[in-house]
Amino acid sequence: MLRAVTVHDVVIADVGSGSSVCRPGDGGDPGGRVLIHLTRRGTWRFAATDAFREAVVVPAGSFIASYEALPPPLDADPGAAATVLILPGHVLGPLLGGGRRTVGPARSAEARVLMSHADTVGRAADGLSPAGARGARDALIELARGVLRQELVGAGSRAAAALVRAATETADARLADPGLSPSSLARELTVSLRTLHRSFAEAGEPVAAYIRRRRLERARAELAVPAGRPDISEVALRWCFADNSHFTRAFRKQYGETPSQFAREGALNKS
């Protein structure tokens, strides 16, 4: 089953299992086409391609969006239904980039408004004046832009949080390593230094500050031991501070007292 209407350069299609719509590159737009497939019922499966090395499953309540590279559905559950939007690539393509795709939930307020508006426009398209059709088209594009931005920002935040977790775990295991630095962490995690810094900035603490804070915590724990406490210079060296004065300045900035004061005033009861 396929029912489609065109509003200026936007296509709104009501698609059922067993049907397909034109590829995103079809239609003559010099900027290409962006396709958003919002699944209403059932599950749709899209085949792997050269651009996408694995099949994609899009269950009810989800969407897949792509610029220029979404393959036709491989198959769908009996009775599956979806709303498919084919939108001008010169407007929305930059959000996805060439060949990029994103999969996300269609239950957000933005996605629900988009689907509702698409349904309304699809039903009323034949009766719209030229000005009304243009306004409906512009509203569809702005709503689609909001859905894509929300998902891409959310995906970026999730990726940043995962990278920060991996980086902190790696750093914690290497705190006594003099070679530990933001650059070495980035190399070990196979990401750019800029990406690492940006992810930590989202978490609210620079990566170098995290490493310094964790080293100070380890040093403070050693100084808190009442018996057999190591010499302060030994602690500073073990936790990779250049010298006693550097260690003292960092410790006082973090805890409001010097390492010597901490040890002298009964650190065990303070920790």
Descriptive report:
- This protein is 49% helix and 20% strand.
- It has helices at residues 89-96, 109-124, 130-173, 182-188, 193-203, 207-223, 232-238, 244-255, 259-264, 267-270, and strands at 2-7, 10-16, 33-41, 43-46, 56-59, 62-67, 73-76, 81-88, 101-105.
- The strands form two sheets. A six-stranded antiparallel sheet has the order 1-2-8-3-6-9.
- The protein folds into two domains: 2-158, Jelly Rolls (Sandwich); 177-271, Orthogonal Bundle (Arc Repressor Mutant, subunit A).
- It is α+β, with helices and mostly antiparallel strands and 271 residues long.
Keywords:
Arc Repressor Mutant, subunit A, 9 strands, elongated, 6-stranded antiparallel sheet, 10 helices, 271 residues, Jelly Rolls
Task: Summarize, please.
By secondary structure, the protein is an alpha+beta fold. It has helices at residues 89-96, 109-124, 130-173, 182-188, 193-203, 207-223, 232-238, 244-255, 259-264, 267-270; strands at 2-7, 10-16, 33-41, 43-46, 56-59, 62-67, 73-76, 81-88, 101-105.
The helix/strand order is: EEEEEEEEHEHHHHHHHHH
Poorly predicted regions are: 22-28
Tally of individual domains: 2
Classify the secondary structure makeup into a structural class: alpha+beta
Mean pLDDT: 82
The CATH class label of the largest domain is: Mainly Beta
> Major beta sheet, specifics?
6 strands, antiparallel
CATH superfamily of the largest domain: Regulatory protein AraC
Shape descriptor: elongated
Share of residues in helices: 40-55%
Strand content: 15-25%
Numbering strands along the chain, what is their spatial order in the largest sheet?
1-2-8-3-6-9
Question: Can you count the helices?
Answer: 10
**Can you count the beta strands?**
9
| Rg result | 28 Å
Quote the CATH topology of the largest domain: Jelly Rolls
